[in-house]
Specification:
The chain contains 24 helices and 16 strands. By secondary structure, the protein is of the alpha/beta class. The radius of gyration is 28 Å and the shape is elongated. The chain starts with 5 loop residues before the first strand and ends with a helix.
Length: 565
């Protein structure tokens, strides 16, 4: 597990009792300033400030609401005066929580860097820090000045860069779920909420604002650090296994629930642009890896769009910039594994993307008539007519050549430490089972204490699962993974309308029938729900790929229920 190397502390109501020592005095100052405009006694205005905060919460525009309550016609000067008085440099006598000094000493002994990132007026926050004698304890102090248009997140990122730290090596501690907790979660840090002061009762709006841990005293922190370093974080560790378009969809879903996401991606693609780069440059296919990096990226749309950009003409026709970039990184770093890590940093991904193996392998399929198809491109036969593929004998088994490809050690480690392992959806034989064929993969999955979930496909795929039902999908997975190895099977219950089914039928793709009677006696719990996303009313170009998709929000809720069960 990652060793904790730094802690980012908020200041107010995290290291000292700001609500009790300063907020009351600030309210009194604001009430006095407003009395000059409203023409009411200071105590009456003070009571209204308290009532307003109790009703709407500390994040509301309290002074605007108070002016409105007193029917002030031109409130802005009054509001400005209240804010100036409230945020003045006047700071009464303050003192640290009694647990703070002993905590700093223990953390310093463990060589953990101590940082303050505090929001407020620069002069006022620095005055507090000096009064509390915090400069002698902190390795770095950063003030997010609310009068300047700079995001607080940038200061958190500065901590990572200045000390050359990974996000998982840092803990963010503060009292506000909408500020330091949200930012820490977004960057992939472990987060601890201090339950003190006015913000302790504000509930998270979403899972991004949900802290990993909650504490009432600073003295609880050393025990939590040990928990964190032992891998016992509150948010689940999720490993998703697959490839193609199915795996990025799962990643997009689960990254909203936890920063601890690992994608384990198949590397058997040998067609189109990835196949060309694989053959010409002697590297593993980058396409599926690229899609997963983009799915987990926290970077802006420009960078994501750049990695997804595909050239249309010339010698680079059909090549994506992202594939070329990963290929170039593989050559400059001398390692495909390092290329992924470098691309992960550039795209600022939330989680990890790992190939299932680093060995150059190809998938082969033996058909029911004994014919062997060599390579993913020959199995898919994307240029063949659907009617021809529908007549092709079904796939009897798939295997890898060479057959000694071993699981990436880091992938094995993530599987063994996972709380939830998600398999699918996607092309059954070329995106999912190819991962299970890698040596050490199945034994790691079966040994892991994680809940194992298989997400079944909604529709059949003519070149792989023609004529399949739900039970046949599940039986095929268990053929490679082992009997009774799944804890949950998640399947779709909503049948598309006739028009949509007709369009799929032209491609020899049909609704996957839920023959639950043929799954009686299996260990896995069957979880059926409507997983189909609502279709847009109008699309410029209606293609098979744009018709049916898993609804990421619905799927996310189902997956979180499985990990919590």
């Amino acid at each position: 597990m990652a060793k904790i190397k730094a802690i980012i502390f908020d200041l107010d109501d995290t290291l000292f009792d700001c609500t009790g020592q300063l907020v009351e005095a600030a309210r009194q100052r604001a009430a006095l300033a407003m009395a000059n405009f409203i023409g009411k006694p200071k105590d009456e205005i003070y009571r209204k400030i308290i009532e307003t905060e109790n009703e709407f919460g500390p994040k509301s525009h309290i002074f605007d609401n108070v002016c409105q309550a007193f029917s002030l016609q031109n409130p802005q000067d009054c509001v400005n005066a209240a804010l100036q008085a409230y945020n003045s440099d006047e700071v009464e006598q303050i003192s640290l929580f009694k647990e703070a000094e002993p905590l700093f000493k223990r953390l310093e002994e463990k060589k953990i860097r101590l940082v303050i990132v505090s929001s407020g007026l620069y002069s006022r926050q620095m005055k507090k820090i000096r009064m509390l004698s915090l400069e002698k304890h902190m390795n770095l102090i950063l003030i997010h000045d609310i009068e300047k248009e700079v995001s607080k997140e940038m200061f958190f990122e500065q901590v990572l860069m200045q000390f050359s730290l990974k996000a998982e090596e840092v803990v963010s501690i503060g009292d506000r779920v909408h500020s330091e907790i949200r930012i820490g979660n977004k960057l992939g840090m472990t987060t601890i909420q201090m339950l003190h002061g006015r913000y302790q009762k504000i509930l998270p709006k979403n899972l991004m604002e949900e802290p990993d841990f909650k504490i009432k005293k600073l003295s609880e922190i050393p025990a939590l650090i040990k928990k964190i370093e032992d891998g016992k974080n509150h948010k689940p560790k999720i490993v998703a296994i697959g490839g193609g378009t199915g795996l990025p969809m799962v990643l997009t879903t689960v990254k909203e629930f936890t920063p601890h996401v690992t994608a384990i991606v198949t590397v058997t693609d040998c067609g189109r642009s990835s196949g060309i780069l694989r053959k010409e440059l002697n590297i593993l296919p980058p396409g599926d890896i690229r899609n997963c990096l983009i799915a987990l990226s926290k970077s802006g749309q420009l960078l994501k769009g750049l990695f997804n950009y595909r050239f249309r003409k010339g010698v680079l026709a059909d090549q994506s910039f992202g594939n070329l970039f990963i290929a170039a990184l593989a050559k400059t770093t001398g390692s495909f594994e390092q290329a992924i890590k470098q691309a992960s940093q550039i795209l600022a991904i939330r989680g990890k993307v790992l190939p299932s193996t680093l060995q150059d392998v190809h998938v082969h399929a033996e058909l029911a008539n004994g014919t062997v198809l060599c390579g993913e491109d020959n199995i898919i036969q994307r240029n063949s007519k659907p009617e021809q593929l529908a007549k092709r004998p079904s796939i009897k088994k798939v295997f890898l050549k060479p057959n000694n490809a071993k699981i990436l050690p880091e992938a094995k480690k993530e599987i063994l430490e996972a709380d939830l392992i998600v398999i699918g959806p996607g092309s059954l034989f070329t995106s999912i089972i190819t991962n299970l064929l890698v040596k050490g993969m199945v034994s790691a999955i079966r040994k892991s204490k994680a809940k194992k979930v298989f997400i079944a496909n909604v529709m059949t795929q003519v070149n792989q699962t023609h004529g399949y039902s739900l039970s046949r999908q599940v039986r095929e997975i268990e053929k490679y993974l082992g009997k009774d190895s799944l804890d949950f099977v998640v399947y779709n219950t909503k049948k598309p309308n006739k028009g949509t089914l007709l369009k799929y039928a032209r491609e020899q793709s049909f609704f996957m029938e839920n023959d639950l009677q043929n799954l009686q006696g299996i260990k896995a719990k069957l979880v059926g729900t409507n997983l189909i996303a609502s279709l847009p009313k109008k699309t410029k170009k209606e293609t098979k790929q744009s018709l049916l998709r898993h609804d990421s929000k619905k799927l996310g809720k189902v997956l979180m229920k499985t990990v919590q069960s």
